[in-house]
């Protein structure tokens, strides 16, 4: 007689996982490289396929060869890194930053934001986020008892000068933003330069947000991790430098984006002591401290970046990379949102058609049309992207499902090969 199979015990799962979409199959799992053709060029995920600067890596190696570099760092960050951040950012903020009370080093920008939401959100507090949004915002807010309130950016129909098919960046409807604010609103999340739109918020737009933040006494989370990638002579306005905004703004930074080091997981927050103190207390209880050798590497990165002209050179390289994809989309005759900053381009894929009998995996059931378009492009053209409807609430999915996000944080050879492959899309356009 066969032995009975042991029963599998199940336990109630916290509602925060459901409400924060943590249990759903996310877009990164659907478009994982293991699910796509082995030769598919990955322009979906925003990681680089080139190394951080050598002098920064050497600092990490030196730290690993020391005793101190292999042990706990101070919870608020290693002093060398906080001093380097002070020297780099004080001129940009127009004030002498205090590395003891106004800078907190975190385990990546994500963890820093999570710690800030832990520090300031009570159950039911509302947090306004602009759509499409960086997908980590949603679970991090919900896990800390907050309620996301979504305000969509709207695609522009106006052309970009010098481009036949490029459209100007997406826009805020300020009436929608005002209606979204209620007595329960606690925070607004800004992301400039923006992922995934590539929008750089103008000074006028930010001043109007600032007026609302002051009127309603809101904290502003200003996610500026793409700060070094602002193109075409545009101005990156640090929200905290606007009148009256320093006292209510948490500015978010990331070594992963600045130094092509996404796996180092080193980020930082800058703000007044009243915001940094509680956030530092929260991050101490979440991760205790950030890894030591990578903090040394980031410190060295900042210490030498100016004299080596690192950020200026990096910006020129990204302009060249951007041009490869822009040219590919222009040759295809497909509309795209002109990227003013970051390393993403949104391509309008509403004209892409596939055979009626084309087989899609069950993982795409119930998803937006952009999931099928991105899957078809990845499998039949050999270039992967990310469907933008993933970054919307259900109510606003229709805005995003006409777009796929392509990342140009890759070397030129990879981008050129992808650009040539993308020309095969001509056979599937209407």
TrEMBL record:
InterPro entries: Aminotransferase_I/II_large, Kynurenine-oxoglutarate_AT, NHTrfase_class1_PyrdxlP-BS, PyrdxlP-dep_Trfase, PyrdxlP-dep_Trfase_major, PyrdxlP-dep_Trfase_small. Keywords: Aminotransferase, Pyridoxal phosphate, Transferase. GO terms for molecular function: kynurenine-oxoglutarate transaminase activity; pyridoxal phosphate binding. The keyword Transferase applies. Residues 39-422 form the Aminotransferase class I/classII large domain. Pfam families: Aminotran_1_2 (PF00155). Its cofactor is pyridoxal 5'-phosphate. Gene3D superfamilies: Aspartate Aminotransferase, domain 1, Type I PLP-dependent aspartate aminotransferase-like (Major domain). It comes from the Eukaryota. GO terms for cellular component: mitochondrion. Belongs to the class-I pyridoxal-phosphate-dependent aminotransferase family. PANTHER family: FI04487P. This is Aminotransferase class I/classII large domain-containing protein. It comes from Trametes pubescens (White-rot fungus).
């Amino acid at each position: 007689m066969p032995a009975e199979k042991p029963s599998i015990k199940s336990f109630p799962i916290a509602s925060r996982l459901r409400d924060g979409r943590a249990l759903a199959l996310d877009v990164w799992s659907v478009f994982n490289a293991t699910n796509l053709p082995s030769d598919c060029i990955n322009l979906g995920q925003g990681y680089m396929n080139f190394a951080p600067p050598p002098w920064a890596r050497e600092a990490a190696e030196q730290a690993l060869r020391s005793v101190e570099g292999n042990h706990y760092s101070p919870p608020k960050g290693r002093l060398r890194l906080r001093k380097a951040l002070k020297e780099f950012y004080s001129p940009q903020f127009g004030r002498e930053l205090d590395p003891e009370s106004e800078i907190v080093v975190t385990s990546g920008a994500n963890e820093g934001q999570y710690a800030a939401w832990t520090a300031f959100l009570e159950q039911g507090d509302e947090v306004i986020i602009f759509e499409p949004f960086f997908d980590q915002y949603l679970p991090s807010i919900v896990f800390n008892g907050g309620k996301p309130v979504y305000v969509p950016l709207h695609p522009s129909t106006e052309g970009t000068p010098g481009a036949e098919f490029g459209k100007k960046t997406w826009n805020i409807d300020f009436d929608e933003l005002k209606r979204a604010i209620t007595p329960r609103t606690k925070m607004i999340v800004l992301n400039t330069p923006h992922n995934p739109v590539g929008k750089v918020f103008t000074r006028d737009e930010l001043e109007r947000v600032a007026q609302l933040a002051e009127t309603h006494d809101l904290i502003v989370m200003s996610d500026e991790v793409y700060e070094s990638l602002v193109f075409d002579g545009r101005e990156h306005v640090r929200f905290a430098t606007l009148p009256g905004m320093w006292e209510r703004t948490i500015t978010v930074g990331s070594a992963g984006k600045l130094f092509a080091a996404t796996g180092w997981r080193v980020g930082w927050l800058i703000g007044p002591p009243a915001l940094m103190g509680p956030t530092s207390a929260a991050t101490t209880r979440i991760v205790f401290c950030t890894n030591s050798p990578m903090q040394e590497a980031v410190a060295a990165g900042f210490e030498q970046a100016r004299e080596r002209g690192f950020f200026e050179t990096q910006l020129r390289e990204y302009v060249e990379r951007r041009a490869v994809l822009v040219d590919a989309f222009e040759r295809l005759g497909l509309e795209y949102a002109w990227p003013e900053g970051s390393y993403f381009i949104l391509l309008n894929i509403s004209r892409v058609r596939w055979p009626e009998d084309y087989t899609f995996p069950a993982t795409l059931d119930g998803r937006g049309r952009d999931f099928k378009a991105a899957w078809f492009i990845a499998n039949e053209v050999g270039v992967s992207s990310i469907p933008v409807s993933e970054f919307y609430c259900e109510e606003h999915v229709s805005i995003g499902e006409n777009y796929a996000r392509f990342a140009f944080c890759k070397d030129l050879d990879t981008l050129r090969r992808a650009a040539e492959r993308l020309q095969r899309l001509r056979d599937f356009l209407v």
